């Protein structure tokens, strides 16, 4: 657009990608967000210093802060976003619902107050329409929540809930609300200019979430038909008009299994997942926001807004998906390659090889977006893109993302906001290898091992004592995967290996470049992208296959036999030590040496990336020693507390 | 001593066999063949199945199993399988106490096709104790290795000298120790002194005097593990160079490690085929050094990112961690890498790190291995502990080693290069061939704060003076304008430049003035 840009950054971000891309950069303070990215004074100074005429607030931080928008307006600097009135109106959950109701937007029907008798409760429930949810108004979250599908269940729910309301909270009020079964989170992107024109740019399906954070998003949604889409779009436009909205905004809805939809809230800013909308509509939302802020009229009409193909976004995070679907991980990206060589792939990232993922900010690595003419095409490309994505130095959630996008329920579109806990009730455990895939993995590891053994013989130049040539073509190996040992016979011809394993035969072909992190192989005629994370002299190999990391140990048959004499390593008893499950800051320490803790009692609280995690004892014991203090920064695996 | 307890049934069997052999001996040649077979079989069994089982139960392999694991399949050529000990005291002369091959297996073989001589002590025979015959066997292969210019690997598993033999076994020790360091081209040794010593966690012990003697002499209570276990020797004493979890792991690592080394000091450092592009740009290096000069980073990040395939074999990783040393390859060619480690004690040089570095530099120089040095050193560690310990003397060892080395020397200053420690770290002044500075380099006498406190003692405006000092000296220019660094380079290009320089320096010839031997400040 030919606009010169200024980036603001904190100390630790002075080498960040956005800083390098901008024409100018200003440091606004030290790492903690409250002192830098949320520090309005420093940002106002930066504006003055550089003579900036407008500010785009991005996604988080000050993007929905009306005070910031006011301060900008006071000095005549344009805020690229809606005006303060809309921010304020939509920022308040209660007020926004009232406005929505007034604008004839569907809201969740419900009743909050004293219900005298069971029959009153039934009457209310019938008005709302089943199913309904009944709980004590004072109870937070889902506590004491009961779901009623008919009159009888409503009476029962009323009895329990009113008792609980009186006894636990001393507050008789009950909340009876429409219960949304299998809820989906579907949101409508709107775009409004300052001249009263408002467009809806179709929906985004964001149902795949963990802890209310989105993980995978797509546009359009498989679930909506054209009519529902239009009605939702029109309601979103009504709401935007009701608050005289301008700029890009998002109206979030919950949609039940019958395609009833209910207003949730409106985000008065650009959304993280906006690229999927850009992909299917061909509009550049940031460009539109800047144009709108400048006062231009929208160039498009509603009928100009298409749905071209399908787009999917995966949020690639530096986090360990094996712990509660993702606990933050930090580190330095020692190797980092985005899969940009593939077509129809877009990667929005703010980091590069060598960047640090630190505890101060959201641990997002990138937004990986693929698109195609159909959903299947976009999904296939996403699978490829995830397999080709090289991230070393931090734990990341690609294993989980790949499992989600290939899961039959996801592929068929049978999803809801409960997808993750429903599909993985025991927590995420990584890809489960079926018999064929297991053989393929074992064969690939064996072939990689042999390749590297052969490579060790390739000493160049002449030595005074000549080397014996390597003329072996067949090997007997033993590969350990999990607790199991597999005998393998492998023979080589050219670049391919024939591997006999577990009663089957696998042919593995490849160009076998051991220096590359990517290991493109053709296994039994199918192209597979594996990644080799490490390969040690001890025979230990870590391979990424089907998105998940597998540790294998490849030994010659003789070595494996001798290895069976080696003593097993005794692993430490973890019940009496508490280690930090993630890097972060200790915010509270609830015990001191000598205290007795009960099983499940909180020992300390670690905060990382805006999240507080309570760590509890796994047995009743006396506290032996405490190794950290509140305020201290700890790394993953650091010893916090020892029990006796 | 348990070692005297020969398994009875086995001994009896052997005796009767030998007797029957004797009967046949005079009659036919076939009997000689049979006797040969019998002896060979007996030699294969070492101290017998029961002792082999006991060895396995301890989580240890037998001498022969170790050799088999270490060498390429079917490459082992054994010598002196028929040698027996010559002791005639304490009943040792009985046939039951004779074992063909005695308590050591010797011979030659190949590791990844390359020739190596090997001896492996057999704990199942008299606890692997060293007899005259045992020593003789070892000396024989050492002599042979010397004549062809091949290395010797010793796999040690021995209780010590064979007490029954008295002085003869001690003479054997003298033989081996004399032969080892001075006469032989090179050894990677699994367990005794020599060039490199690797050991095993939990099962390797090494001490001059054991815990019992220690208790009786100094009244000190100490366990075997604390006194001379792998942890002690790799982290505290610096006697061992690396520890491994068990026999199998150690031998597998040893095979890979062997590939880094030339067969002898007459051979150039080996070059392996390389799949990692020599002109690969390493983008991550552009941001590895933090902005604040007081903030640490991991020197291993730099090393792993630069070397071929990220393959770095670190030597003494748990001892004097403020300096990192080890082997790697650049465009296939073996190099020795020395780097200050800012993560530990700010990467300063102290007594232990100086000695560790010096020993490594001399190893590289002795075996024609080019040395790459990464410098980020704030100086020598101050304090009485260091001064009383002789830091001047020990620091001089590292200075001496770098100065005397005639192999190609390439130096990269990544950040701090302060004072005398800068000189020591393979500087231009010590005949560095190529010396580079990254833009973050600060070559100065000391840090700005300290310098200003001395220059402007008691004066005001210290902050201003400090800023001026930073502006003047905390950058690569003062060194570059004087030619003390050859170029200021973009970190991402470091690998490319080192590979190119090594290509050119391969033909480097530099001879030190003649002397009987140099006088390193020991």
UniProtKB/TrEMBL annotation, chain B:
InterPro entries: AccD/PCCB (IPR051047), AcCoA_carboxyl_beta (IPR034733), ClpP/crotonase-like_dom_sf (IPR029045), COA_CT_C (IPR011763), COA_CT_N (IPR011762). It comes from the Eukaryota. Residues 277-516 form the CoA carboxyltransferase C-terminal domain. Residues 29-177, 202-273 form the CoA carboxyltransferase N-terminal domain. It catalyses: butanoyl-CoA + hydrogencarbonate + ATP = (2S)-ethylmalonyl-CoA + ADP + phosphate + H(+); propanoyl-CoA + hydrogencarbonate + ATP = (S)-methylmalonyl-CoA + ADP + phosphate + H(+). GO terms for cellular component: mitochondrion. PROSITE patterns: COA_CT_CTER (PS50989), COA_CT_NTER (PS50980). It is an enzyme of class 6 (ligase). GO terms for molecular function: propionyl-CoA carboxylase activity. Pfam families: Carboxyl_trans. Its EC number is 6.4.1.3. The holoenzyme is a dodecamer composed of 6 PCCA/alpha subunits and 6 PCCB/beta subunits. This is Propionyl-CoA carboxylase beta chain, mitochondrial. It comes from Nothobranchius furzeri.
């Amino acid at each position: 657009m030919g606009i010169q840009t200024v980036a603001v950054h904190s100390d630790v971000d002075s080498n960040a990608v956005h800083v390098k891309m901008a024409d100018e950069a200003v440091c606004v303070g030290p790492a903690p967000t409250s002192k830098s990215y949320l520090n309005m004074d420093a940002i106002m100074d930066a504006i003055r210093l550089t003579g900036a005429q407008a500010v785009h607030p991005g996604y988080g931080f000050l993007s929905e802060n009306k005070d910031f928008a006011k301060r900008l307006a006071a000095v005549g600097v344009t805020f690229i976003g809606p005006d303060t009135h809309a921010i304020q109106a939509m920022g308040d959950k209660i007020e926004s619902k009232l406005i929505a109701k007034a604008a004839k937007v569907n809201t969740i029907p419900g009743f909050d107050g004293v219900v005298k008798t069971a029959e009153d409760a039934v009457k209310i429930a019938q008005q709302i329409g089943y199913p309904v949810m009944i709980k004590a108004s004072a109870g937070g979250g889902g506590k004491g929540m009961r779901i009623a599908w008919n009159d009888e269940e409503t009476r029962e729910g009323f009895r329990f809930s009113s008792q609980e309301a009186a006894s636990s909270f001393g507050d008789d009020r009950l909340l009876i609300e429409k219960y949304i079964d299998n809820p989906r989170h579907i949101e409508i992107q709107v775009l409004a200019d300052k001249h009263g024109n408002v467009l809806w740019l179709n929906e985004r399906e964001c149902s795949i979430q963990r802890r209310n954070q989105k993980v995978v998003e797509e546009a359009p949604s498989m679930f909506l038909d054209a009519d529902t889409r239009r009605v939702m779009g029109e309601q979103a436009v009504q709401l935007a008009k009701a608050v005289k909205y301008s700029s890009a905004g998002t109206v979030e809805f919950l949609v039940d299994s019958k395609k009833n939809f209910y207003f949730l809230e409106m985000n008065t800013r650009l959304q993280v997942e906006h690229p999927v909308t850009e992909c299917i509509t061909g509009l550049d939302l940031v460009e539109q926001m800047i144009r709108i802020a400048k006062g231009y009229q929208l160039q498009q009409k509603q009928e100009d807004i298409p749905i071209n193909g399908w787009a999917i976004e995966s949020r690639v995070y530096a986090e360990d998906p094996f712990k509660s679907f993702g606990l933050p991980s930090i580190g330095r990206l020692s190797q980092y390659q985005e899969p940009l060589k593939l077509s129809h792939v877009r990667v929005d990232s703010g980091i590069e090889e060598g960047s640090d993922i630190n505890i101060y900010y959201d641990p997002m690595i990138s937004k990986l977006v693929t698109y195609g003419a159909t959903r299947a095409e976009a999904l296939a490309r996403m699978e490829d893109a995830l397999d080709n994505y090289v991230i070393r130095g931090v734990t990341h959630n690609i294993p989980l993302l790949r499992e989600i996008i290939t899961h039959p329920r996801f592929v068929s579109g049978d999803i809801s906001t409960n997808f993750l806990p429903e599909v993985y009730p025991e927590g995420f455990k990584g890809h489960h290898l079926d018999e064929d895939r297991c053989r393929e993995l074992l064969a690939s590891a064996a072939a990689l091992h042999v390749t590297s053994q052969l490579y060790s013989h390739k000493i160049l130049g002449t030595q005074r004592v000549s080397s014996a040539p390597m003329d072996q073509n067949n090997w007997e190996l033993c590969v350990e995967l999990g607790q199991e040992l597999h005998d393998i016979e492998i023979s080589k011809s050219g670049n391919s290996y024939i591997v006999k394993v577990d009663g089957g035969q696998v042919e593995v072909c490849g160009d076998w470049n051991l220096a590359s992190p990517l290991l493109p192989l053709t296994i039994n005629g199918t192209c597979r992208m594996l990644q080799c994370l490490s390969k040690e002299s001890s025979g230990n190999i870590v391979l990424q296959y089907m998105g998940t990391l597998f540790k294998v140990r490849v030994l010659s048959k003789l070595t494996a036999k001798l290895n069976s004499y080696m003593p097993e390593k005794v692993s430490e008893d973890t019940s009496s030590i508490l280690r930090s499950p993630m890097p972060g800051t200790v915010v509270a320490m609830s015990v001191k040496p000598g205290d007795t803790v009960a099983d499940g009692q909180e020992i300390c609280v670690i905060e990382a990336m805006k999240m507080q995690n309570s760590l509890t004892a796994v047995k009743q014991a006396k506290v032996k020693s405490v190794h950290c203090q509140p305020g201290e920064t700890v790394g993953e695996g650091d010893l916090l507390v020892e029990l006796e | 001593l348990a070692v005297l307890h020969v398994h009875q049934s086995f001994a009896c069997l052997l005796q009767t066999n030998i007797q029957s052999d004797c009967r046949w001996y005079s009659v036919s040649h076939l009997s000689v063949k049979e006797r040969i077979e019998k002896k060979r079989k007996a030699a294969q069994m070492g101290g017998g199945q029961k002792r082999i089982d006991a060895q396995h139960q301890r989580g240890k392999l037998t001498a022969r199993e170790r050799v088999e694991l270490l060498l390429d399949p079917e490459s082992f050529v054994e010598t002196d399988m028929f040698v027996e000990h010559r002791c005639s005291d304490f009943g040792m002369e009985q046939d039951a106490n004779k074992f063909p091959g005695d308590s050591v297996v010797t011979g030659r073989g190949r590791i990844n096709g390359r020739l190596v001589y090997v001896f492996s002590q057999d704990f199942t025979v008299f606890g692997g104790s060293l007899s005259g015959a045992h020593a003789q066997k070892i000396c024989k292969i050492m002599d042979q290795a010397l004549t062809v210019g091949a290395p010797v690997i010793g796999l040690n598993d021995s209780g010590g000298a064979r007490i029954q033999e008295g002085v003869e076994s001690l003479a054997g020790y003298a033989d081996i120790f004399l032969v080892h360091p001075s006469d032989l081209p090179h050894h990677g040794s699994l367990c005794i002194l020599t060039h490199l010593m690797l050991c095993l966690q939990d099962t390797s012990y090494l001490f001059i005097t054991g815990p019992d003697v220690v208790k009786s002499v100094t009244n000190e209570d100490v366990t075997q593990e604390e006194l001379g276990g792998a942890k002690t020797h790799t982290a505290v004493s610096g006697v061992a160079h690396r520890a491994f979890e068990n026999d199998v792991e150690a031998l597998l690592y040893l095979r890979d490690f062997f590939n880094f080394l030339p067969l002898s000091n007459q051979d150039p450092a080996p070059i392996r085929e390389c799949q990692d592009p020599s002109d690969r740009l390493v983008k991550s290096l552009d941001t590895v050094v933090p902005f604040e000069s007081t903030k640490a980073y991991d020197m291993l990040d730099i090393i792993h990112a630069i070397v071929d395939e990220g393959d770095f074999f670190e030597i003494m990783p748990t001892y004097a961690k403020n300096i990192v040393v080890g082997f790697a390859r650049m465009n296939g060619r073996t190099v020795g890498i020395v780097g200050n480690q800012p993560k530990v004690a700010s990467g300063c040089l102290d007594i232990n790190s100086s000695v560790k570095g010096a020993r490594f530099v001399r190893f590289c120089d002795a075996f024609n291995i080019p040395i790459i040095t990464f410098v980020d050193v704030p100086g020598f560690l101050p304090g009485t502990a260091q001064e009383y310990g002789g830091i001047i003397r020990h620091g001089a060892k590292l200075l001496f080693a770098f100065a005397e080395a005639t192999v190609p020397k390439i130096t990269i200053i990544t950040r701090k290069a302060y004072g005398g420690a800068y000189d020591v770290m393979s500087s231009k002044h010590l005949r560095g061939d190529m010396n580079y500075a990254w833009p973050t380099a600060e070559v100065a006498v000391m840090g700005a704060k300290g310098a200003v406190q001395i220059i402007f003692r008691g004066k005001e405006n210290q902050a201003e003076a400090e800023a001026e000092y930073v502006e003047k000296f905390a950058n690569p220019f003062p060194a570059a304008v004087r030619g003390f660094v050859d170029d200021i380079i973009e970190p991402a290009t470091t690998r490319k430049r080192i590979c190119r320089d090594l290509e050119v320096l391969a033909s480097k010839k530099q001879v030190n003035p003649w002397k009987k031997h140099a006088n390193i400040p020991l």
